[in-house]
Amino acid sequence: MPHPQQTLIHPKQWHFLVSALLLCALFSNSGVTWAGVNDSELRATIVYRLLQFSSWKGQVPGQTRICVIGSKSLHRELLSISQHVKKGFDVKQVNVPPPSSCDIIVAGPKAQKLKLADIQRKFLICSSCKSEELAAIHLYRFGNKIQFNINRKIADTRGIHFKSSVLKAASKVEAGS
User: Fold this and answer.
1) For 28-60, what is each residue's pLDDT tens digit?
2) pLDDT band per the 50, 70, 90 thresholds, residue 25
3) Cβ contact 51:104 at 8 Å
4) How far is residue 92's CA from residue 26's CA, in Å, rounded to a whole number?
5) CB-hemisphere CA count at 13 Å for 87?
C-alpha cells in the first residue's frame, strides 16, 4: 500500500495542473471548447485587449470606430464586447474600401486582398486575412493556439505605438524604423 504522502498532490501543483487544463481547453483545435470559447470569441478578445495596450495617431479616447471586413462572426463578437465594456468602441461591418471614418480596420479571412489605398494609413489588424503584409498586427492560428505578430515598420509609419507588454506577448516582432 502506497504511503499517503506519496499520492497527494501539493496545493501549488494542483493549482498549476488545473490552470494548465483550463488553458488546454481554451486553446483546443475544436470550434467550441468545453470552456465555451470559440475561435471568433477568442480573436475578438485578443483584438480588444491589444487595442487597450496600443495608441495611434489621431486617437480620440472614447470615440474609436472599428470597421470589420470579411468576418461576420468576428464583427458579432467585437460588437458584443463593445456593448459590455462601454469604452467608446463603435463597431461596424463594412465593405472594401472601408469608409474614411474608420480608425481601426480588422480584416478577417473572407476579406478580399486590400490595397494600400484602401487602408488610408489606418491601424490594420489582420485576422488570418490575405493582406497581412499591410497589417500592424497579424493574428493567426498555430496548432491549437491563436498567436499574433507585430510589424513595427508598418506601425511606426502609421503612428501606432504598443506598450511593452504587447511586444513581449507577440510571437514575432518585425523590426521597425
Assistant:
1) 333 334 356 788 999 999 999 999 999 998 888
2) very low
3) yes
4) 27
5) 14
Count other C-beta atoms under 10 Å from residue 27's C-beta.
16
Nearest Cα neighbor of 157 from 115, 124, 118, 109 is 124
Three-state SS for 150? strand
Q: Give the start-to-end residue ranges of the domains of the chain.
A: 38-174
Q: Which three cell numbers stand for residue 40?
A: 471568433
Amino acid in the structure at residue 144? N
- 29: which 3 cell numbers? 483545435
| Higher pLDDT among residues 126 and 177, named by residue | 126
Give the span between the Cα atoms of 145 and 68, in whole angstroms: 22
**What is residue 97's predicted lDDT score, i.e. its pLDDT?**
85
The highest-level CATH class for domain 38-174 is: alpha beta
Give the type of residue at 21. Answer: L
The DSSP bridge pattern shows strands 123-127 and 104-107 to be parallel
Cα separation, 44 vs 50, in Å, equals: 10
